[in-house]
Amino acid sequence: MYKLFIRPIFFLFDPEKIHHFTFSLVKFMSKIPLIPAIFRAVYTVNNKKLEKKVFGLTFKNPVGLAAGFDKNAVLYNELANFGFGFVEIGTVTPKGQVGNPKKRLFRLKDDKGIINRMGFNNEGLEAAIEQLKKNKGKIIIGGNIGKNTHTAPENYTEDYVACFKGLHPYVDYFVLNVSCPNVSSHAKLEDAEYLKELITEVQKINKKEKEPKPILLKIAPDLNNQQLDEIIQLVANTKIDGVIASNTSVNREGLKITNEKLQEIGNGGLSGQPIKDRSTKVIKYLADHSNKAFPIIGVGGIHSEKDALEKLNAGADLVQIYTGFIYEGPSLVKRINKAVLSQLS
Ligand SMILES: Cc1cc2nc3c(=O)[nH]c(=O)nc-3n(C[C@H](O)[C@H](O)[C@H](O)COP(=O)(O)O)c2cc1C
Predict the structure, then answer these.
(1) How many domains does the chain have?
(2) For residue 268, what is the domain's CATH number?
(3) What is the pLDDT of residue 24?
(4) Nearest CA to ligand 1 atom 18
(5) Which residues of the chain have pLDDT under 50?
């Protein structure tokens, strides 16, 4: 239904406009009596066997919605009806910011991919908190946090700390996003020494909270083996609760789209099918070389149940989707959950 009728119409329009239109449509439809129950009946797989305990939280199933879709935490209550086990909101920055100039979101239809250079457009911490106060408690919420684009390097930690403190009462786990290719002056966030300092600072605050929350690090798919070894060491040294692999890629190898069109599109993070194998490789490397010492959320190019199982078999404990949700529609969540279930039994 989605791929046959809805996607061909959606794909006629500007991707960012369609994103906002879909939000309004889902919000509107979810207010109609019975519709949320119908969505749940159609898309949810209810089975205790799908439950998974990871970093101290019990997920009702292992399929999550990746960060960047519900940046401002305005749709997570409604998205809970589409069968997800968790939704990650953000990236939230302390101050609201408009992000990069438009056009900044591009479909690569033949490659089943997306290039985006949104640049952390979001309404900011206070707005996210107001939205999260409306939580109906139906789903696990992750809080993905970052720094404002114009924050000076010496103040990066302050930005993460502000978001961490502000969102702490409202989310179930945190993600330190240090791997977005679309914000400038990112070099510091690739430096293992700085990452250790950042993680330690956030953990210090976490320990003072009555109910400490799991903290994960989100990494790029473009890290080489030496950098991945550094991540494994970093996790061992800081005891951070887990890693999300991966964010979008700056690599453009092996695409069907012509070079000319790629030039036209310009910079940005590539997501979807073209990054599937790279992100799975990262997951496998982290799992194998750490002796599966920490939880991993696998994300990048999951467009089918097979892709999701590949990530889980490579060492991921949970998976997330974004681009696959756009290309395949909400039934993908159910298909993955059914496949996981049949692998269990
Ligand atoms: C339009 C768009 C916006 C995104 N925004 C964010 C973001 O704000 N924070 C973040 O951590 N990841 C963001 N991501 C990355 C996704 O969460 C995910 O890691 C990546 O797209 C790979 O998964 P996929 O291939 O299933 O899309 C964004 C991705 C897309 C396509």
Answers:
(1) 1
(2) 3.20.20.70
(3) 93
(4) 247
(5) none
